[in-house]
Amino acid sequence: MGESKLPPLAADAVLKQSVAVPDSFVKVSGVDYSADSAYNARATDLIDSMRNMGFQASSVATACDIINEMDSWRGEHRDSLEEHKRTGEFDSQGFQKATVFMGFTSNLISSGLRDTLRYLVQHKKVSAIVASAGGIEEDLIKVLAPTYMGDFALPGKGLRDQGLNRIGNLLVPNDNYCKFEEWIVPILDRVLEEQQKALEELGAEALNADSPAVWTPSRLIDRLGQEINDESSVLYWAHKNKIPIFCPALTDGSIGDMLFFHTFKASPQRLRLDIVADIRRINSMSMEASRAGMLILGGGLIKHHICNACLMRNGADWAVYINTGQEFDGSDAGARPDEAVSWGKIKAEARSIKVYADVTVVWPLIVAATFAAKRPEQAA
Amino acid sequence: MGESKLPPLAADAVLKQSVAVPDSFVKVSGVDYSADSAYNARATDLIDSMRNMGFQASSVATACDIINEMDSWRGEHRDSLEEHKRTGEFDSQGFQKATVFMGFTSNLISSGLRDTLRYLVQHKKVSAIVASAGGIEEDLIKVLAPTYMGDFALPGKGLRDQGLNRIGNLLVPNDNYCKFEEWIVPILDRVLEEQQKALEELGAEALNADSPAVWTPSRLIDRLGQEINDESSVLYWAHKNKIPIFCPALTDGSIGDMLFFHTFKASPQRLRLDIVADIRRINSMSMEASRAGMLILGGGLIKHHICNACLMRNGADWAVYINTGQEFDGSDAGARPDEAVSWGKIKAEARSIKVYADVTVVWPLIVAATFAAKRPEQAA
Amino acid sequence: MGESKLPPLAADAVLKQSVAVPDSFVKVSGVDYSADSAYNARATDLIDSMRNMGFQASSVATACDIINEMDSWRGEHRDSLEEHKRTGEFDSQGFQKATVFMGFTSNLISSGLRDTLRYLVQHKKVSAIVASAGGIEEDLIKVLAPTYMGDFALPGKGLRDQGLNRIGNLLVPNDNYCKFEEWIVPILDRVLEEQQKALEELGAEALNADSPAVWTPSRLIDRLGQEINDESSVLYWAHKNKIPIFCPALTDGSIGDMLFFHTFKASPQRLRLDIVADIRRINSMSMEASRAGMLILGGGLIKHHICNACLMRNGADWAVYINTGQEFDGSDAGARPDEAVSWGKIKAEARSIKVYADVTVVWPLIVAATFAAKRPEQAA
Amino acid sequence: MGESKLPPLAADAVLKQSVAVPDSFVKVSGVDYSADSAYNARATDLIDSMRNMGFQASSVATACDIINEMDSWRGEHRDSLEEHKRTGEFDSQGFQKATVFMGFTSNLISSGLRDTLRYLVQHKKVSAIVASAGGIEEDLIKVLAPTYMGDFALPGKGLRDQGLNRIGNLLVPNDNYCKFEEWIVPILDRVLEEQQKALEELGAEALNADSPAVWTPSRLIDRLGQEINDESSVLYWAHKNKIPIFCPALTDGSIGDMLFFHTFKASPQRLRLDIVADIRRINSMSMEASRAGMLILGGGLIKHHICNACLMRNGADWAVYINTGQEFDGSDAGARPDEAVSWGKIKAEARSIKVYADVTVVWPLIVAATFAAKRPEQAA
């Protein structure tokens, strides 16, 4: 250990020279605290300072850049298009705009993010939604009764004894579901009635394309949005703004419990929910879009469903994923956007980013720096 | 810094005395390398040495203990039960056994775990399955053409150019889906024909309970299992052993693509898939079970759907979760079993465990140490 | 499946009544988009809207509340204290304030967060720092040459060929380390000279308490901060503001490479770095503090070291952890604050929170809403 | 929605043809349950069935392949080498073998994995170890008193009241640390005595290279291994087999507490621990190795320290990482082997793998299928 000559092996490895740094390289930087804007910073200033900060700070800023590009993209004017190309979304002045698919998981509606998601639907920032079943029912239930703050560590047995259901660090009193049952049963009765009436009228054509005898998850959700008739609700605004909400597994939650109960009440008649018409509907939106973007908040079904729809157009043009899934287990939830490129679900030349974060931590900031950087009346 | 007297504050805090350790405390221990069984160890020996190892090793061993208890549980003899209580599962000698709900995500069927999942279905180790759409189609497609090993880091653009779809470190040639389309289209034609025939026969009762005019995901999956007719297939054995496979969002994958295409081919007629009947069916299985167990491999829909079904019986009696989800984001995927206790989805007194691991790492070992500790003929 | 009576088991389980919700329960809420402050929101408004949002949004807001409480806590006036109790930190008016230990991992200095960490040190928001070795050298190197934005997916072989070292999505040209070597070697020469001179002078007392012959990591770091003499540097301000930086494993990085090289250059003499004096120093700060707080940014050594120091006072009074570690693997990095309570490292009655997030995503926002809610001159 | 012609856009995207699959492609496969070896499978059979299973199952099998290759690699015979090249490790017959650096975090010694780590040291399967401080003291403490099984959810306050320290789902009574103090203090007294004696003898040369006045972490650890003198101990076998254990931050744990206390007891004399000599020592082992392999169990310091040492030889030849860290936060813990390639810490042509798993879940299986596939006497 007492040698006095440094072996060249180590020196060469440690002090290896690098190539000249290309001019295109961007230096890492952070918040400039000499500027007034660093103090109690505004969302856009925060995002600007995060852009070249590295790690997920940069990914958050990239997500904002993609969203702004997607939101402001405009194509041809409607009048300059051949008639069969007048599909997809147009802005109020008649120019093509992106069709934006937003997916979110149930827990985000349970959280206070519901207000932010509702804001986006109210102001037509998205074109279609894919949600899991809880994302539908919790939006409705919150009109009937609130959800409360809890703690991740509250023991389950004590909560069950008190009828308090835990969702992470939130609590939903079970009475909320009782209220939901009271509210929804009469609606299901009427929906069944409409189904049966149409069935009788249409006979052998009752299951044909566009038959009114066939209820689908998106059709039922639209009806529920109409019935709830409350401005705090995502479903209300989706109904009002004709933004379809897709939920292929609508039975997987409290609505499923109610539909299950209803099978006994209605017997031998039965309300049916067809999922084939909805896959036709969402895929058609994708094909008709002049450009398509994806905002994926969470993982699982809601992520895959939007990606799969975008395969129908040979790939989305913009994609923002935000979730905590990891790719190492081969899950779709954890798959990076580049995996979707291999499937044709995102175009190779599309701008895409995955932000590795709990959605509640970043989405309020991202929305404040993009869709809600200005008040809607000012932005218009 | 040169003081010479240790302040008692630090000494008291560091050298605080502990209570006498109760006799019930179990010492941490590991592999005993003095025993021959430690070398190239068998599954059951590995599990025994992991039981008091701590961290997830202990969780894996607990999962094995729960599975063995659930698998060997026996209740009353059929003949000693009142007629209306003769529901749920019985063993070959007529004793009540647990109804086991197994859920798995699509990627596990894409992986080599398919053989293990098929083994469990073939040997009736489970009573019902909940899968995501890919878990259905990939099982069928693997009969038609293989999936290959790839790498997590293969760039998406090059893969898309070659028509190779990536799933984590696996690759599925896109031709596999073309073969799948050729195989399934004639089946969908026949299924539609059966629907229409029944519709015409039943008229206004066509949508009633148990109407043959109504196809559901589980009914279609059963038909596909019958048609594929191949012993390597999970669906084949599920059909043969009358083990229902539930997949409420069956349209969310390649089958959905095919159903979508079929809406054009069949127009104006249309095949319909009702999800209400399936929620009735799975919930009924839960209510009828004398005891119920959950094996949850992965997260998302498949986890929630089984938990929700078990609410109908006021909670499962055994629960094993294996996935990589974390609770901090309030996701259902990451929720611990104790969250399900608060909802009444797992009984407070049930044995449950969550193993935090990629399923492929632990499930082969767990199965080898439990369900497949002995050859079926020996075990019987 | 066609039964018409809902079994009471299911109805009772699903519609179980809950206890009356106590008045103390807090409703989940989110951003109020009717308020002007929701648009391009300021940091404090964002945090206010996240407080009862649930999941990690709430944890971020709690972290801000804890930081504000810790930062503004004031105890007795110096003059009203017995002499031996005049330890720890005092504000400019002579009142006791909290001793704040901040730990961060190397990568945060590589990222643009360095500016934020420097801001906190410059304005004496923290009392002591624990860093990993890279957190020392990268701060110095950034004065000599910049770090650049890269991409997580850049292949390692090509980068090595070009002499570009990757840190997540950042790139550090290897020339930066060559520049660092040129800068640090003369300093190490002088430090060794001082060691040897003191050794000769002190003889048998050369290793005694407070001997100038003994260099420690914190003493060398302080010297490096003095030498770098650049206002962009964390070490510069730490030196200037007499805020010690502890780094028990200072050899574990490029400085270690340089110290290693120096053993050959200096042979048979050798610079020594003693870690015992530093544990005495950090533990003493903990014992002397009137109140102690922990800001832990990342995991591993820097987390454990601060927690361990706080054991010497029977627990910290405030604790904020921010990292992505999970507890399931029994790692210290992933351990929740409540695990530290069991060890006496955090007081049972302390306010503490763990935020599960990449630090770069949340720390700029948290600092903007707390320490930097006002300009320092305004805040004073 | 009622159109009858499928747009070619969707058909082309979904049914895109793939290139012919090259012969080199390997099919995904799993357990072959027609073979007897599938039942209560042995470790090597399990690993064989996991090799082409995909996801982390494949990574585990790759880890085994790398370990077997590394363990069996043999180079030149000692006698055929020039004298200055007779460095590194040789097998009992005089052939060069790989120098294996194994790193593990403290919690693994707390867990039952200690027996497995001890087995590897006892049978000279590794050449050097890097551990965190807890990995040193917990090994010693376990000779004095056991660690117990606990639960991740035990509340910290109650545990502290009882003096039970929690590590994940393990419990360590605080009395164990009191026993440790009694055991170690006399040893520290003697070590200080030796330091002072050498200091007096050597005078101005007391800090020179190889001076016996200078204690280092690795030297103290070796002495502790000698003193504990118990075959269950990792340190005992490391001492006996002359396998150095490096722990640059040895003060960061209970040993640090004891060294801290000792500064008061010994004042004004003080034991010193130099970390410069240890970086010289580990780097020298790396440079002298004919081939070098890394076994990294966990993250943080122990990972970086081994990687950094391997930079001195321009990269390791084999690398197995096992931990739960993720790369998205730019942490070294989560960095993939390919990031180390960019730094020259792993050779571009080396075989490397990262297994994403809690070490306790996979390491017993991996060891049983590799190092312990045969009893040592049989293997020799």
Automatic annotation (TrEMBL), chains A, B, C, D:
<keyword id="KW-0520">NAD</keyword>
<comment type="pathway">
    <text>Protein modification; eIF5A hypusination.</text>
</comment>
<keyword id="KW-0386">Hypusine biosynthesis</keyword>
<dbReference type="InterPro" id="IPR036982">
    <property type="entry name" value="Deoxyhypusine_synthase_sf"/>
</dbReference>
<comment type="function">
    <text>Catalyzes the NAD-dependent oxidative cleavage of spermidine and the subsequent transfer of the butylamine moiety of spermidine to the epsilon-amino group of a specific lysine residue of the eIF-5A precursor protein to form the intermediate deoxyhypusine residue.</text>
</comment>
<dbReference type="InterPro" id="IPR029035">
    <property type="entry name" value="DHS-like_NAD/FAD-binding_dom"/>
</dbReference>
<dbReference type="Pfam" id="PF01916">
    <property type="entry name" value="DS"/>
</dbReference>
<dbReference type="InterPro" id="IPR002773">
    <property type="entry name" value="Deoxyhypusine_synthase"/>
</dbReference>
<protein>
    <recommendedName>
        <fullName>Deoxyhypusine synthase</fullName>
        <ecNumber>2.5.1.46</ecNumber>
    </recommendedName>
</protein>
<comment type="similarity">
    <text>Belongs to the deoxyhypusine synthase family.</text>
</comment>
<dbReference type="GO" id="GO:0005737">
    <property type="term" value="C:cytoplasm"/>
</dbReference>
<dbReference type="GO" id="GO:0034038">
    <property type="term" value="F:deoxyhypusine synthase activity"/>
</dbReference>
<keyword id="KW-0808">Transferase</keyword>
